[in-house]
């Protein structure tokens, strides 16, 4: 966003500068193929999770309802964000108009924050399940889960649409409107104030809470191992094997991996969002776009993680693929993993 670009833009008057076509067709085709495959996996993988949890009665648990809500978030991302971002990334410009740019931008920001809030909620759920198992059925009930889900969706929605529709995120950035109007761009841009707010409120604070909770869960699990070892007189390996078979311990471990993947995917783009306005928006467009897609790919990875670590998802997926879910008795089928 330098002055030379603004002067070039002004020469075109009310006309938009055509989208650049400097990428070879083979490269464009390869990028389209990769991003399209990622989008398809995101859509159908998360759709499989949604159908599994909603259909099978055995999977109706507080934890799974949180996973269901997060899968819905990832599904929406795959349906309404990733396809348009694919075109923007390959064509290097925005072809869908200024108003839809704002809508797309709002949903993009909203769904990212919703994912973080869901992971915080899941971390809290696992904390009570592992650290306070006797209180868990009374603390984490279905009404409590509904309130958590409502919070996870409503607050990010108000935040995202409020910031983007009012243009608060680009206030004080000269030339932003020229980029949108003349160069047909829909850039991911935040001024210094909102880059700080975004990083700390939407990522660093909730991320730190999640890490702290999972560290606590790990410490408590190790304490349980030592206690059982001293009481039962068995080897630590045998006890760890027994504990790892318990559903709550295994779920905590798996969701910890989900959180780790999430942090790996989104940390680079949040750091870039934080630093870019302080570096005079000098981050290369290609790098910023690649890091943004790394964040999107978190929604692609989640159903793959579930499929690898959760036997219930693999069993439920077989019912879905072979059409057994249309059988009336399938709702009561045993798809949960054995202890």
UniProtKB/TrEMBL annotation:
Q: Where found? A: Cell membrane
Q: Does the keyword Transmembrane apply?
A: yes
SMART domains for this protein = 7TM_GPCR_Srsx (SM01381)
What residues form the membrane-spanning segments? 30-53, 65-85, 105-128, 148-166, 193-215, 255-275, 295-313
Q: Which residues form the G-protein coupled receptors family 1 profile domain?
A: 45-306
Where is the major localization of this protein? membrane
Q: Which Pfam families match?
A: 7tm_1
Return the Gene3D superfamilies for the record.
Answer: Rhodopsin 7-helix transmembrane proteins
Print the keywords alphabetically.
Cell membrane, Disulfide bond, G-protein coupled receptor, Glycoprotein, Membrane, Receptor, Transducer, Transmembrane, Transmembrane helix
Q: Which PANTHER family match?
A: HISTAMINE RECEPTOR-RELATED G-PROTEIN COUPLED RECEPTOR, TRACE AMINE-ASSOCIATED RECEPTOR 2
Q: What is this protein called?
A: G-protein coupled receptors family 1 profile domain-containing protein
Q: Which organism is it from?
A: Leptobrachium leishanense (Leishan spiny toad)
Tell me the organism's taxonomic lineage. Answer: Eukaryota, Metazoa, Chordata, Craniata, Vertebrata
